[in-house]
Amino acid sequence: MSKLLSPVQLAKLDLKNRVVMPPCVCTVLRRKMGWSQPFHEAHYGARAIGQVGLIILEATVVESDGRLSNQDLGIWSDQQLPGLTKLARQLHDLGSKVGHLTGAWRSQGA
Questions:
Q1: Is 73 exposed, middle or buried (0-12, 13-18, 19+ CB in 10 A)?
Q2: What is the pLDDT of residues 38-75, one digit of tens each?
Q3: C-alpha span between 13 and 105 (Å, rounded)
Q4: Integer Cα distance of 58 and 26 in angstroms
Q5: pTM (2 decimals)?
Q6: For the chain, where are the E strands, in sequence order?
Q7: d(Cα 23, Cα 19) in Å, to the nearest integer?
Q8: Spatial distance between the Cα atoms of 44 and 49, rounded to a whole number of angstroms
């Protein structure tokens, strides 16, 4: 068996294989509220169905004024949590582990 497809443990995280999807910026949000969309479920769900062991979601900003664009996914409001929770559960149900990058960028250089 290829090492790539063999299980691995990273700290306390057990992965079914060593295939990792790195973060990318999708900028597909039509609304400026930063909520996950059906696109995210389809896009990341396809990777989970494809047996990716670890999926790292796109940059998810923690402050609305820190976005690089209005289409960035966000986690600055409790209203965004149900969609992100649903997405993570879907990916877990499909056998993938999920992580995300968070950050806040200030457009005025602060």
A1: buried
A2: 989 999 999 999 999 999 998 788 888 877 777 788 88
A3: 29
A4: 7
A5: 0.84
A6: 8-10, 13-15, 20-21, 54-61, 73-74, 97-103
A7: 13
A8: 9
